[in-house]
Amino acid sequence: MLKTKRFGLIGKNIDYSFSKQYFSIKFKKENLDSYEYTNCDIKKIEEIGEIKLKDFAGFNVTIPYKEKIINFLDSVDENAKKIGAVNTIKIKNGKLVGYNTDYIGFIKSIDGFDFKNAVILGSGGACKAIAFALKIKKIPHVIFSRKSDPKFLNYSNQKNYIRNSDLIINTTPLGTFPNTNDCPPINFEYISKKSFCYDLIYNPAKTKFLMKSEKLGAKIKNGLNMLQYQAEESWKIWNS
């Protein structure tokens, strides 16, 4: 009898999980009958000790633990270290090694576009991966945040930046199901036909941010593509 090979998602309130559905379908399609994918829903990062980590071959990590998880790992890949966030863990010789595949997923999802500059909404773990990706693509960008930090712009400074940027990316969870009426505090009078509005959220397919932007003539994209690409990159890491 084949030994079960287990993978999991570490996060909070993850019943909606893209990863579990994605990998469960993948395992079925590829006849990987001994593989399974489990949601590891924890209320706070300290509860990670309740998960028998060594029983798994690898994990995905989602909001709100992409940054906090680093303190519980044995080592971290160089790029994930630079980003300061981990979304993929490989169990290697009993050690937990952290990686980030979000930035690769994002880069692949904008392949073929020629953006001159960008605005990132939000300054959490997802923002860090996007900022790293934009740096690789040599796309100048600014970050808007509610945090009081000199590295970030306050939302009251939108006029000059959003009007003159062709790529606006929401990296906040605002608008995720079931809170679909939520929206990042963007001034929509600065969105126009030259804007490309990208929301990392995939559920719903069109957030309030995307719907309002589309009505103003902007091109829009949700995060499903990016998620699919980053999931495949995780798969490569687990099997390398």
Descriptive notes:
This protein has two domains: 5-100, Rossmann fold (3-Layer(aba) Sandwich); 104-223, NAD(P)-binding Rossmann-like Domain (Rossmann fold). Helix content is 28%, strand content 20%. The protein is built from seven helices and eleven strands. The strands form two sheets. A six-stranded mixed beta sheet has the order 2-1-3-5-6-4. Strands 8-7-9-10-11 form a five-stranded parallel beta sheet, with helices on both faces. A hairpin with a 2-residue loop joins strand 5 and strand 6.
CATH topology of the largest domain: Rossmann fold
- Identify the CATH homologous superfamily of the largest domain: NAD(P)-binding Rossmann-like Domain
Give the second-level CATH assignment, the architecture of the largest domain.
3-Layer(aba) Sandwich
The CATH class of the largest domain turns out to be: Alpha Beta
Low-confidence segments, ≥5 residues, pLDDT <50? none
Using only C-alpha atoms, the radius of gyration works out to: 18 Å
Number of helices: 7
- β-strand percent reads 15-25%
Coarse morphology: globular
Topology readout:
Layout: E1 5-11, H1 18-29, E2 35-41, E3 58-61, E4 75-76, H2 78-83, E5 88-92, E6 95-99, H3 102-109, E7 118-121, H4 125-136, E8 141-144, H5 158-162, E9 167-170, E10 196-199, H6 208-215, E11 219-221, H7 224-239
Parallel strand pairs: 1-2, 1-3, 4-6, 7-8, 7-9, 9-10, 10-11
Antiparallel strand pairs: 3-5, 5-6
Helix pairs in contact: 3-4, 3-7
Short summary:
The chain has two domains: 96 residues, 3-Layer(aba) Sandwich (Rossmann fold), CATH 3.40.50; 120 residues, Rossmann fold.
